[in-house]
Design brief:
This protein folds into four domains: 1-38 and 143-170, Orthogonal Bundle (DNA polymerase, domain 1), CATH 1.10.150; 46-137, Beta Barrel (OB fold (Dihydrolipoamide Acetyltransferase, E2P)), CATH 2.40.50.140; 171-435 and 632-678, P-loop containing nucleotide triphosphate hydrolases (Rossmann fold); 442-597, P-loop containing nucleotide triphosphate hydrolases (Rossmann fold, 3-Layer(aba) Sandwich). 39% of the residues lie in helices and 18% in strands. The protein has 21 helices and 21 strands. A hairpin with a 5-residue loop joins strand 3 and strand 4 (79-87). Helix 8 runs parallel beside helix 9. Residues 270-431 form the Helicase ATP-binding domain.
């Protein structure tokens, strides 16, 4: 891969190992990543007349500096730079916080443009950005997703540097005739206009092309995977032993639900067919997808094959391992667990036993796709929460067998039509019923003024010997603030429940610390577990009968539903309280919906009605892959067109050997390297 775009960011002037590591925390490793790291919004820097500005509005004001700038200090490293700005016959007080160096740019009598948030009562501007009038050529300032490691200003300067030095190296991945047909920009113009649009119309045109490009890349990857599978999609019919499967059924302490039986039959029919299985199993939180997976695993083993189950997190892998080992070991099945934390000696033993066939099923994280993992006869691949893995990662595991059957599972239901578009030619199975004996969770939305009612229920539950989750939200922009919020809640609950063991669990703890706390919680040594959303996919604790989610309006609907699914795992009545004081009508509507609806499929529909892809499909909480620019619901038609175009291209040039597809092939190879970076 000799294209300069794929060179590491350290090739940029002024980028050393520290800055490279900081950029890496945003998923930016190369010049290519930097150029295609697009803004999520633009602040409009068009100035407005003062009499049209609303209180709290972000606006750019143009005027003449009327007083000398003055820097005052308050607290450690905190400063306020103040001066008065004359706008026609009015005077506005401007305050810049923690930017004392701007003092040298501000001179009495000078024309300036200042962007900030306006306070109508005080007739003052809390300023964010100083814009010399001559610099304000486009009226738009791009705003990028950042974190505590890298600040907006630094990222903007690095992207500008990359544009100046490397824009000419950018080539097209979407063929010219397709761009002409759908009025799409070339990659060069797309990149330039996304970062430096001359006006809002140009930014919208660029975003439209960027959405298509993102979907097109994803659909090309899927089409290549489908093409690879179809070459030998004959697969192998698994002649499983029904008498052995009957032993599994007999050993279970419960009966499968109607939906579970139906899905098991669909999977068995696929496995018995000479065609390779490709099936997506959608099941609500706690609907019993794992036991369906166990049936598929055991059927494959009785037919003489090995199985692999890949999950996104170590805690989930451990949970699955314990449950599956408990069910299958009595039937003579050897189950192994392989994660990043598996000790070297044990890891080598697992590699050896996978190769000689001693291990029948291995459960693990992306550690399963390492080169050292070699199966004797892999016949079934199960991928849990498959949207959390890249196409390349999924393919790496599937390629470890000779056309193995593939079962993907997700606990975040998405509409069937969307699932078929996003996951290509997979068949879709659904589990709607909860396992027998489970009582629906009683959910309530309470405001902070109603906490007495919540506390009363907490006291009742603790007195009855049950345990409680207290959940506080994560804000990705500020890990330090997340921890502070969790610590504050922990201190409050320790004070309010002095006779209970109240323990804090948060994302910045080591894996060993988290495991120890969760083990103590499972063993009933902890009464109230205060946690951030790290418990969203975690161990089952049947004795945890109640959950209180604070600032619930800061979570997405899907995330709230996933969190709620951590309780209600036993046979007793469970309670979930959503504590929130939403300021907007949509926020209030979301709280009413989550309190009233417990069916994940119905919740998905409601969420779609409310806000398109919205929170349901945001980040890693959704049943669809994460897209940075596109929205699979709002831009569904674009997704369908991208799928059609991608499949046609792969059909005509399955190995991407055409010279016009050279850059596309390089980008795909680079993306695969990135996906396997872990």
């Amino acid at each position: 891969m000799n294209n300069a775009l794929f060179a590491p960011v350290t090739d940029l002037k002024g980028v050393g190992t520290k800055t490279a590591a900081d950029l890496g925390s945003l998923g930016i490793y190369s010049i290519y990543d930097l150029l295609y790291y697009f803004p999520f919004r633009y602040d409009e820097l068009e100035s407005m007349p003062l009499d049209q500005v609303m209180d709290g509005q972000k606006v750019m004001l143009k005027g003449i500096v009327a007083t000398e700038p003055f820097v005052s200090r308050f607290g450690y490293k905190k400063t306020r730079l103040s001066f008065k700005l004359r706008i026609d016959h009015e005077v506005v007080m401007v305050n810049f916080f923690n930017q004392p160096w701007l003092k040298s740019k501000i001179e009495i009598g000078k024309d300036v443009a200042i962007y900030g948030k306006y306070n109508l009562d005080r007739q003052s501007l809390s300023a964010f950005k100083f814009v010399a009038t001559k610099e304000n050529d486009s009226g738009l300032a791009p705003v990028y997703p950042v974190n505590k490691h890298i600040h907006q200003k630094k990222l903007v300067s690095l992207i500008k540097l990359a544009l100046d030095e490397y824009l000419e190296n950018v080539e097209d991945i979407v063929p010219l005739k397709i761009r002409q047909k759908y009025r799409l920009l070339s990659d060069k113009d797309l990149v330039k206009w996304m970062h430096k649009p001359n006006n809002i119309s140009q930014a919208e045109i660029a975003k439209r092309s960027a959405i298509f490009r993102e979907f097109y890349l994803f659909q090309i990857q899927l089409a290549l995977l489908m093409n690879e599978n179809s070459k030998q999609s004959q697969g192998f019919a698994k002649k499983y032993d029904l008498q052995e499967v009957a032993k599994l059924t007999k050993s279970l302490p419960f009966e499968l639900s109607h939906d579970q039986k139906h899905v098991v039959n669909e999977i068995f029919a696929d496995m018995h067919s000479p065609r390779q299985m490709g099936r997506l199993l959608q099941g609500d939180v706690g609907s019993g997808k794992t036991i369906v997976a166990v049936y598929a695993i055991y059927a494959a083993i009785t037919a003489g094959y090995q199985a692999a189950l890949m999950v996104p997190t170590e805690i989930l892998a451990t949970q699955h391992f314990k449950k599956i080992d408990e069910l299958l070991r009595p039937l003579g099945v050897r189950v192994a667990l392989l994660t990043g934390n598996t000790k070297t000696l044990e890891r080598r033993e697992i590699y050896r036993e996978l190769t000689d066939g001693t291990i029948n099923v291995v459960i693990g994280t992306h550690a399963l796709i390492q080169n050292n993992v070699i199966f004797k006869k892999l016949g079934l691949v199960i991928i849990d929460e498959q949207h959390r893995f890249g196409v390349g990662q999924r393919r790496s595991l599937i390629n470890k067998g000779e056309n193995p059957d593939v079962l993907a599972m997700t606990a975040t239901p998405i509409p069937r039509t969307l699932a078929l578009t996003v996951y290509g030619d997979m068949q879709v199975s659904e589990i709607h019923e909860l396992p027998s004996g489970r009582k629906p969770i009683i959910s309530s939305w309470k405001t902070s003024s109603q906490m007495d009612e919540v506390y009363q229920r907490m006291h009742e539950q603790l007195k009855a010997g049950f345990q409680i989750y207290a959940v506080t939200p994560l804000i990705t922009e500020s890990e330090a603030l997340d921890l502070k919020n969790a610590e504050t809640l922990h201190a409050k609950l320790k004070h309010d429940f002095p006779d209970q063991n109240v323990v804090l669990l948060h994302g910045q703890m080591s894996g060993a610390q988290k495991d120890e706390i969760m083990t103590n919680f499972v063993n009933k040594k902890i009464d109230i577990l205060v946690t951030t959303s790290v418990i969203e996919v975690g161990v089952d604790v049947p004795n945890a009968n109640m959950m209180v989610i604070y600032n619930a309006d800061r979570f997405g609907l899907s995330q709230l539903h996933q969190l709620r699914g951590r309780i209600g795992r036993g046979k007793t009545q469970s309670y979930c309280y959503f504590v929130a004081d939403p300021k907007t009508e949509s926020g209030k509507a979301r709280m009413k919906i989550i309190a009233q609806i417990s069916d994940g499929f119905k919740l998905a529909e409601e969420d779609l009605k409310m806000r398109g892809q919205g929170d349901l499909f945001g980040k890693a909480q959704s049943g669809v892959p994460e897209f940075r620019v596109g929205n699979v619901v709002n831009n569904y038609n674009t997704l369908v067109v991208a799928q059609k175009v991608a499949r046609t291209l792969v059909k005509e040039d399955p190995n991407l050997t055409n010279s016009s597809h050279k850059f596309l092939k390089q980008v795909l190879e680079y993306k695969e390297v990135q996906q396997n970076r872990d």
